């Protein structure tokens, strides 16, 4: 079934590419694109089978995201982000899953994970709760979050928040699930790259969140979640730090892969008007740049796919995932993004002045790749430092490992 999704997506690529400029101008994806992606099954790939999902091997999902991003980086990015949330929702309490998908399994969920919200425990009557949350209780939530990609197309949102104790100090870090009726979207997205992602702000003002719509980030990092009781397949034993971070790395790699192909198409028959003239394709320096860029892209794809596949094999076999493998996956994920950015920088530099024109596919890939690279999950130095700590035998504690 996952291969059928890829086949269906490939039929959509020409139209998606043709709409990419309109998506940039509108600063969000057309509803038509979202509908086509939904019909193709993109958003169902990591969804529990109980709700009509495919529970596909994750590497197949990232392959779809890369191909979409090669046609339109913003489409690839939104597909990766909205497409990964069904996996995380599958870890929530079964009651939360039923609230989201019970009436319509095609409902989409957006996110903004930075802990910018404030959660105050309350009891079932809404009164402040001094200790743990009792049955029927939950939290009052307030906050403002940025970078909620594709939020205009979603009916729910996953938001990061800190639990505030009796003394007003943070005591826990949670992800909470909030329905569209409980938040508003502020149209603030006006950026240099990934312009079509509609990554606007989400604002919540003192709403009640029942305890079953919350998940402790520590538990998730320990590969635990209440949803595992009903979603027992291997997909829901994968680490968040592998599943989610790969979903925001794949679009960057895909965008550069698309830029690489457009570069070859544009430059293959071009003649230089300077530097002695001649065919661009005959230029030694251009040939070297192409070789380096192609190698960087191949390395990015091969390493990231290898790690996801290795972790998948472990969970299928009900074997523990070694910390060294989890760290290696994060190392190669951020290095994959870094390699992709290096590749598009090489191509952009050698393409000449024409690549500066707004809307040129090389220029767009350059902007989009750099924009995607600044996502916190693609922060190379932080992830590489964790890998180094692990290699030296030091303790590594982080929710993104």
From TrEMBL:
Gene3D superfamilies according to UniProt: Acyl-CoA dehydrogenase/oxidase, N-terminal domain (1.10.540.10), Butyryl-CoA Dehydrogenase, subunit A, domain 2 (2.40.110.10), Butyryl-CoA Dehydrogenase, subunit A, domain 3 (1.20.140.10)
Domain Acyl-CoA dehydrogenase C-terminal: 248-379
Keywords: Oxidoreductase
Domain Acyl-CoA dehydrogenase/oxidase N-terminal, chain residue ranges per copy: 4-81
Source domain of life: Bacteria
ATP-binding is among the record's keywords: no
The name this protein goes by in its record: Acyl-CoA dehydrogenase family protein
Organism: Jatrophihabitans cynanchi
């Amino acid at each position: 079934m996952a291969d059928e999704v890829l086949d269906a997506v490939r039929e959509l690529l020409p139209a998606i590419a043709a709409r990419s400029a309109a998506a940039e101008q509108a600063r969000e994806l057309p509803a038509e694109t979202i509908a086509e992606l939904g019909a193709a099954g993109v958003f169902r790939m990591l969804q529990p089978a109980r709700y009509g999902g495919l529970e596909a091997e994750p590497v197949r999902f990232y392959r779809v995201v890369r191909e979409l991003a090669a046609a339109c980086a913003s489409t690839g990015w939104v597909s990766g982000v909205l497409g990964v949330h069904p996996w995380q929702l599958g870890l929530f309490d079964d009651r939360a899953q039923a609230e989201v998908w019970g009436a319509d399994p095609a409902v989409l969920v957006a996110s903004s994970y930075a802990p910018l919200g404030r959660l105050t425990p309350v009891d079932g009557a809404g009164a402040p709760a001094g200790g743990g949350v009792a049955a029927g209780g939950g939290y009052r939530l307030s906050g403002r979050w940025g970078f909620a990609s594709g939020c205009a197309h979603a009916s729910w949102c996953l938001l990061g928040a800190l639990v505030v104790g009796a003394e007003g100090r943070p005591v826990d870090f949670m992800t909470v699930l909030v329905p569209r009726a409980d938040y508003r979207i502020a149209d603030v997205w006006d950026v240099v790259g990934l312009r079509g992602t509609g990554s606007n702000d989400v604002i919540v003002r003192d709403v009640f969140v029942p305890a079953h719509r919350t998940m402790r980030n520590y538990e998730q990092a320990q590969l635990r979640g209440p949803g595992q009781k009903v979603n027992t397949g291997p997909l829901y034993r994968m680490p968040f730090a592998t599943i989610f971070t790969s979903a925001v790395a794949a679009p960057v790699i895909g965008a550069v892969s698309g830029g690489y192909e457009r570069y070859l198409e544009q430059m293959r028959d071009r003649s230089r008007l300077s530097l002695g003239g001649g065919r661009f394709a005959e230029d030694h320096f251009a040939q070297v740049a192409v070789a380096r860029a192609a190698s960087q892209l191949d390395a990015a794809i091969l390493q990231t796919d290898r790690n996801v596949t290795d972790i998948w094999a472990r969970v299928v076999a009900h074997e523990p995932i070694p910390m060294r493998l989890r760290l290696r996956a994060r190392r190669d994920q951020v290095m994959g993004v870094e390699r992709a950015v290096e590749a598009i920088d090489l191509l952009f530099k050698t393409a000449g002045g024409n690549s500066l024109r707004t809307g040129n596919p090389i220029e767009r890939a350059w902007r989009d790749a750099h924009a995607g690279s600044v996502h916190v999950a693609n922060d190379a130095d932080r992830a590489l430092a964790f890998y180094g700590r692990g290699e030296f035998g030091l303790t590594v504690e982080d929710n993104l490992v």
